[in-house]
Amino acid sequence: VVKTATTHLEQSIWAALAGVPDPEIPAVSVVDMGMIETVEVDAGRARIVVLPTFTGCPAVPVIKSDVAAAVNAVEGVDEVDVDTTFDPPWTTDRITAEGRVKLREFGLAPPGSSGPVLITEIGLPKQAKCPFCGSTDTVNENAFGPTPCRALYYCRACRNPFEQFKQV
Amino acid sequence: VSESLHAVLVALGDDELILGHRHSEWTGFAPQIEEDVAFSSIAQDEIGHAAAYYAIAGSISGDDPDRIGLGREAGDYRNAILCELENREWAFTLARHWLYDLADDMRLESLAGSEDDKLRALATKLRREERYHLIHADAWLTRIAQGPVEGRTRLIDALSEAFPAALGLFEPFETEEAAVKEGWLPVPSDELRRQFVATAGRRLDELGLPTEVTAGADSAAEFLASSSGDLIEAGRRAAEPEVDEKNLLGGRRGRHSKDFSVLWDTMTKTYREHEGASW
Predict the structure, then answer these.
(1) pTM of this structure
(2) ipTM
């Protein structure tokens, strides 16, 4: 297989997207979060398909414009279309291994990573692993938090409150 | 262009928008700070979900989703009356929250089989998020059902009051017949309502919250969920009047309660005074 110029350009776009932070969790990029479904280029015109994380998340318009700006800055891209779709739905198993490490370093317990989650399995773990001390002696205090994607926990070991990225 | 699909999407969006607005009224006022956070977050979800329904509707009609959400006259909203009733007290809020989110879960499960690609994808996505709402509501019902008698009594009263209004979620959409025929609605509203009454009755029974569960005006049967057994058919009930008198049905046809005019005025005021503004 011969690598075409388009493929090279697509790779440059992916690299640029890896530098676009999630506005609410700037430690991770939209690529770490698995939000980029498609990167296509046709004669200098790029089309990016973004999967919104939580439907009610107000960060989506910001993400769209940040993605457009980053892709626009890539050499060889003349025009950018950024679309969103719910098909396929964004699910937490799309977050990369690297993304999970970054979430933990940011202070957010990452969601479980054992592949696709059935609707009936969605829920809060009784014990989430504390991102600060690693203890599982933790308790869920609220299924909801400061953003649609977060639940609140308390760590009995290090006595810190922390947030968990909710599994969907 | 499908008018029948458009009407369904707007009604679904209206349910979410109006209940989301009510939930948001707990921001700063809930009985516990954790519930203040929870209801604020649920409100944000519901209003975001409404925006997603309106976006699909807008792609059919060419309308701006904000205008669909905030630029209509009060009589043009098609939400079930359940969603617009004032929050009243905590027991009523929880009863409505549980009934709504159970109904929504069942409705989304059916819509995940819609013939419309966008609606099918959205319903699949929303159901995964709404799961947390149902878990939250069910946890509260469980807690109160096992708690002191006063709370339990107030919750049972609230459930009995909210239940007939919850059936308004399954009143036929204005374009029901066409929407079923064209495959947008895989399960007719009437059938979903029967499933809802059975499921809700069973769960309330498990929880030990005996609630008078009417199967709805036109099916003319009344069920009683008792704490000791299955649903009991308690007797035949003459058609409409009783529930209709309380003004709890008719939302899908644009009939609303007095509570709605106050909500509508507050909710749309900024939009009406600054049409086209963005922030």
Answers:
(1) 0.91
(2) 0.92
Separation CA B64–CA B57 (nearest Å): 9
Which chain B positions have a beta carbon within 8 Å of A51's beta carbon?
Answer: none
Give B245's pLDDT tier (boundaries 50, 70, 90): very low
Strand order in the sheet with A45-50: A36-42, A45-50, A79-84
Picking from A54, A58, A88, the nearest residue to B129 by CB comes out as A54
Question: Which residues have a Cβ under 8 Å from the Cβ of B139 and sit 6 or more positions away?
Answer: A143
**Whether pLDDT at B232 is above 80:** no
The whole-angstrom separation of Cα A152 and Cα B109 is: 28
**Closest partner residue to A56 among B34, B47, B139, by Cβ?**
B47
